[in-house]
Structures are given as structure tokens and as C-alpha cells.
Amino acid sequence: MLARLFPDRFVPVLLATIVVASLLPVRGSAVPVAQGISTAAIVLLFFLNGVRLPRHEVLHGIRNWKLQGGTFAFCFGAMALFGLGAQALTAPLLPPTLALGFLFLGILPSTVQSATAASSMAGGNVAASVVAAALLNLAGVFLSPLLFAALAGKAGAIHGAAALRIVAILLLPFLAGQAAQRWLRPLVLRHRGLATLMDRTAIATAVYVAFSAAVVGGIWTQLDGREIAIVLGVDALLLGCAFGGTWLLGGLLALRWPDRITLLFSGAQKSLAVGAPLAATLFPSAIAGMVLLPILVYHMAQLILSAWIAPALARHQEV
Length: 319
Hints:
By secondary structure, this protein is mostly helical. 83% of the residues lie in helices and 0% in strands. The chain has 16 helices and no strands. It has helices at residues 2-5, 10-23, 30-52, 55-61, 65-90, 96-106, 113-122, 126-152, 160-179, 181-190, 192-216, 219-222, 225-252, 257-268, 272-282, 285-318. The longest helix has 34 residues, at 285-318.
């Protein structure tokens, strides 16, 4: 029953992380230690991402410009505008940092593993999914902070210290992974399970530290049932716009069925693997958890929705 409710095992891990952070948040002298561990985990995460993302496949896949261009435009264009609209819609109803979280959700790149896995399960173009994930995440390291700064106004201003943290914690490890790809990529691919475990541990650690700070700052006393319901409702609306919009765009572009499936999952999903570290880099720890709440809900919902949709698409293709 749990497997049917949570087809992706990472969903209950994230739920457990939020519960543990709510009951046992990091406090006092333990905070710098936890932040140091989280930073080290983020550095490792982006180094592994750099090792895994294949440069030669990216260059080869760019030739499918209709699919890759549509995915890129939807992920960073349409979704950023949807996020901006959601922020404007909820600004009078929610705390400012929580409403800002919807814009933050919109500017993030797509997931890597889950979008590719869902595309494979649905009978999509797996090679193109790998390329789309690589392109979106390569671009997201640079583009997501710039988009956020451009659309968020004063709230998204990236100061010198934040810019240096982005370079040191996200960009340099990623570039180092790309440089070491020739030697380390075969090893990482041979141990996919261990690499995925390290990825998810890094994400859960970043979420735990950020959410702990939000709990200590009083997130559960600041939010009432009405505001939590608004977050759930707006995230559901964004999911509908994302999955419906990518499917419609695939039809308008007259993509082949496998490519349309790839566009669906690569364009509609959003990456917590980038979101959690980026929030920890851009925002003070006291508000990072509040900003992360919309992407946390969205991420868990997209994993469940994708795992439900993919088998149905595969069955439709077999008919």
C-alpha cells in the first residue's frame, strides 16, 4: 500500500526529514557543525553531478533542437513566469518569504535521475532525457540565480558574499567534476546505487538544516492551516500547469511520441537537488526553510504524479 501511495522511495525520506527537523531541530552550538556538514554534502553533490553529466552526449543531443529548445524554454521561461504569477497571487495571503518560494520553485532546473527514470518507464526517448537533464542542469548552475535576481527585485538581490558562495559551493565543484569526468565517470556509473544514495543523503541533509532553522524561527507558529492549504493548492495548480503545459507544447511542436514524453517529464519536474543548496546559499538560514517549502511540496508531488503517469503512457503506447 505504501509503495502504491509513494512510488518513489525518496518521498517518505523527505517527509521523515521534515518531521525530524520539526521535532528535533538543530540548535545552539550544533548549528555551525550541521551547516558545515551540509555544505560539505552540497559540494560532494555538485561534484558528482559534474562527473555524471556527459559532455559528448550533450553536444550530440543539441541537434534535436525542437525537443531540447522546447524543454529549455518551458523549464526556464514558462515555469519562471508561472512561479512569478503564483508569487503575485499569494503575496497578499502568505508571509513574503513563503510567497517568494513559488518564484524560487519556478526558476529551478529539472531533475536528473527522476525525470530520466520516468521517461524510461513511460517509453520516452531516454537518450534525449539524459541530454535534456544535462543541458538544464548545466544552464541552471548559472541561469537560476540570475533569473531569480532578475524577477524577484530587491528580494532576489545577489550580494557579493552570496555570489562567492554560489561559485565556491556550487560552480567550482561542478566544474571540478567535469574536469575529472574522464577518470571518475566509469567508477561512478559502476556504483550508481551508492552515488544515488550519496545524492539523496546530501539533499536530505540540506533540507534538514534549512528546515531546522525555519522551525527554530517559528515556521509552525507563523503558519496556520489556511496558509498551509494555500501552499498545497497553489502547488497543485503549478503541477497542473507544468504537466499540462508540457504535454500541450509537445503536441504543438508535433514531436514524436517518445520525444513528447521526454518533454513532459524534463520540462515539468523541478530539482530539489539544486533548490536546497541554492536556497542555503542565497538566503539566511532563518528564512531558507520557509522559501523551500513550496519546492519541497512540489518535489514530492511530482515524484508521485510521475510514477502514476508513466505506466499509463507506456500502456497507451503499447496499444
